[in-house]
Amino acid sequence: MYARAAAATAAALVGTAALVLPTTSAQAAQTGGGTVVVAHRGASGYAPENTLAAVDKAASLGFDWVENDVQRTKDGVLVVIHDTDLKRTTDVEQVFPKRAPWNVRDFTAAEIAKLDAGSWKSAKYAGARVPTLQQYLRRVDANGQKLLMEIKAPELYPGIEADIVRVLGKEKWLDRGHVRNRLIVQSFSADSIRAVHQRRPDVKTGFLGTPPVSQLHSYASFADQINPSNTTISAAYVAAVQAFDGPHGRPLEVQTWTVNDAATARRVARYGVDGIITNYPDVVEKALGRS
User: Fold this and answer.
1) Angle formed at CA 70 by CA 68 and CA 72, multiple of 5 degrees
2) Is residue 241 a contact partner of residue 209, using CB atoms and an 8 Å limit?
3) pTM of the model
4) Phi and psi (nearest 5°) for 11?
5) Is 82 known to be catalytic?
6) CB-based contact 242:254 (threshold 8 Å)
7) Is 197 a catalytic residue?
8) Which residues contact 130 (CB under 8 A, 6 or more apart)?
9) Alpha carbon separation from 219 to 85, 152, 253 (Å, rounded)
10) Using one digit for the tens of pLDDT, what is the confidence trace for 101-119?
């Protein structure tokens, strides 16, 4: 591992002028041939994010992998929502006008279940709800899909990692098939991902961010993926990450976010990323020459 990592570190210090050279569509298609496309918060470009409708939309477009965000309610139920407050994607200000600042953690699951989480996107999604993690897992499973799960703001929810593992186990997402092929847990918090790895070392994990190459060895002890913003990476950085072996003895992977246009999709594919996270999976798929 260390020989490969040292070589990649040296490469990261070399100029990357060649990376800006144009590429043909055929080359781009070849480069992105093995790149996984992940529907960000479901197919959120078309359906309200993190809802079951967004999961179904990704399925209807033909995409297996969906990404979501998990938080915890006041009464300890895990729910799927991105923002730490309910304002942007629900009608909480109308339903509970006196409950500012409308934080997820200040509402019970029953209260959140009353909210409309679809109308903000489109009238045709009126009445869509904020799903519980249990409901979400069941829909993903029913669709035969795979899940990249983000633990959102874990500092607000002490012990949420244990809660997530418990629900995953209850819904049979910790059996061999799911763990090996259909589940990744990620977070911007290294401590949170480390906690998941310590509790269930068989579960594949990802760190959201772009840690310096000099620190990658420490992340490789508990993370299988380094998942950075597309604005922060280069071919040299991707190669440096992939030169390290993760906790399961396989090279670290890179899934980059959030890529919503063809030009950016082709650029990061040329860098050699393992996955592209996008609100518009069909746009990325077409950019990679696969549709």
Assistant:
1) 160
2) no
3) 0.90
4) -65, -35
5) yes
6) yes
7) no
8) 50, 51, 79, 80, 81, 86, 89, 90, 112, 113, 115, 117
9) 30, 19, 12
10) 999 999 999 999 999 999 9
